[in-house]
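Please, structure for the following, as tokens.
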Amino acid sequence: MSAGYAGYASLFNRKSVEIDGLKVLYLEGGHGEPLLYIHGLEGWGAWDSYHIAFGVTNHVYAPLLPGFQDGRVPESIKSPADYAALMSGFIAAAGIDRAVVVGHGIGGWIALRLAAEAPKLVSRLVLVDSLGLRIDDEAETHLRDMDREAFSNAVFARRGPVLVPHAYNPDFGGEFQDIQNSQDFKRYWRCREIMVKWLGDQLYDPELPNLARNITAPTMVIWGREDGLASVQHGHRITDLIANSRLAVIEGAGHSPMKDKRETFQKIAHLFLTESAELGVEKVTEY
């Protein structure tokens, strides 16, 4: 099936919808069961390889969280819980009954709230290095105090020069560039500034542990071993809270395993999205 629909996965449309007075831009592509992708610090704007990978098996909707384009989070959005309510409205506005929900980073926090508070809307849940929890014996992360070097080391498993496509011909060849000069880093750094202005250093939700226990959707938790924003212990904690869940830990990946270890991430997600709804007996798998 995936081979037959591979062509659909690379095609997408840019659309918008108005929800409660807020204009929500989104990308739409792929073929199959609806999948809502909620972005994290990686931002939004391109139909990236992980969107294409999801689009092989699913009809993907990838909204831009209002405020993450112009840097001004709407006054009505006080917390990730408000974004979760907005995403519930988005599902309805898109004419979807139920969807697979995938969330990365802050998007994972939003996805957790959505799956807990509107369980009938979520058929399956994929959480990727989600924010929102606090580990009691672990030092808190303070985004506000991080300089570019500390932030880069916290987010990326990659160090030093990285190969990026040529700006003048992205379809052919590339050049080595320091990670902090890359477009990936610039997007993350800009989203960090938005997060600090919006939430300060409040990167956890005291209600989330109790809410997560109510999640019934089959859940795959994917985590980069070298994540410096939310350690792998957060992944173990989420998996302990959600009964029907399991954890995949990816070695050599940071806060964005879908970028650091693309093939491994896509393999894990693909297997989860195409297998039976009942998860296997192994709670934790390392890759």
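The longest helix spans residues 183-199. The chain has one domain: 6-137+202-286.
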